[in-house]
Write a structure and sequence with these properties.
The structure is a homodimer of 117-residue chains. Chain A is mainly alpha-helical. Chain A has helices at residues 10-19, 23-36, 39-50, 55-62, 66-78, 98-116; strands spanning 53-54, 82-87, 90-95. Chain A is elongated, with a radius of gyration of 20 Å. The first copy, chain A, binds a DNA duplex (30 and 30 nucleotides) through helix 5.
DNA sequence: ACTATATATGAACAACTATTCATATGAATG
DNA sequence: CATTCATATGAATAGTTGTTCATATATAGT
C-alpha cells in the first residue's frame, strides 16, 4: 500500500469520505454478494425460490453430485440464506429470507435490460 | 458428475424444472454478483454512488495503490457498471447503471435487519 | 524535446474456492 | 443388528482471483 498519492481533489475526497457507509456493512454486503456470485448457488436459490426441495432432488435437478450440492448448501446455510427441515433421513431445504427473492428479481431485471439495450 | 441419483420426488423435480429460469440468465446474474462480491469493488461502487471520482482520489479514499484500484475499475468497466470521462490526463469514473444503487440498497437493508434480528 | 503526472496494464504470486473422491453419520427397514 | 439409503464432511486438487511490482501510455507544463 502506498500513501504517496497526490490528492487531486482534497475537498471531494473529504466530502465522499464523510458520506461513505461504514466499512463493516460494506464488507458484509460484499460477503453476501460473494455467496450469490456462484452459479451453482444461484441455481439452488432459484430452485428453492420456486419450491422446497431435498438434497437429492436438487442434485438431480441441477445435474450435479450430491456432494457438490451438499457443500454449497452448507455455505448457504452458514450465510443464513436457506433453512433445513428434517423428515426421517431426508433433509428439505427452503429459502430463509424474503430479501433474497427481491435482490435476485432486481438483478434479473438488470440482466434483461442489458440484453435489450 | 454423477447421474445415478435416486430421484425421490420425480413430480416435484419435473415441476421445478419447468418453472426454473433459463440457465443463461442465471449464469449472467451470478456473474454480476461475482463483480459485487469483492469488498474493494463494493467500496468503489459506494463511493461512486455518492459522487464522480478520479482514479487518484479513489485510491486515496480507499487507501489502496493506484494500480489495485485501476485493475478493479477495469473489471467494473467491462461489466458496464461504471463509465469513464477523460479530462486531460485525469479520468473520472461514475456509475453507469441505475439498478446498481437499488440492488445495493436492498442488500444493505438485508444486512441491517440481520444485525437486529 | 524533456519532465512530471495520471492512469493502464502485463506478469507473478499468494490466497481462495468449487468440485471430486472417499468416507462418516444417522435414520429407516428387513 | 446388519444393511440400505440420504446427507454431511474432510482432504486433495485444479482453477480462479486480487494485489503487487515494474513498466507502458498519454497528456500537461516548461
Amino acid at each position: 500500500m502506498e500513501f504517496e498519492n497526490t490528492v487531486i481533489h482534497e475537498e471531494v475526497v473529504a466530502r465522499v469520505k464523510e458520506k461513505m457507509p461504514q466499512e463493516e456493512p460494506i464488507y458484509e454486503v460484499s460477503e453476501l454478494f460473494k455467496v450469490f456470485g456462484d452459479s451453482t448457488r444461484s441455481r439452488i436459490i432459484c430452485a428453492l425460490h420456486i419450491e422446497e426441495l431435498c438434497v437429492n432432488d436438487l442434485s438431480t435437478l441441477l445435474n450435479m453430485t450430491q456432494s457438490a450440492v451438499s457443500h454449497q448448501l452448507r455455505i448457504l446455510r452458514q450465510a443464513r440464506l436457506v433453512k433445513s427441515r428434517k423428515d426421517g433421513r431426508v433433509v428439505y431445504y427452503s429459502l430463509d429470507d424474503d430479501h433474497i427473492g427481491e435482490i435476485f428479481s432486481l438483478a434479473f431485471a438488470h440482466i434483461m435490460e442489458e440484453r435489450e439495450g
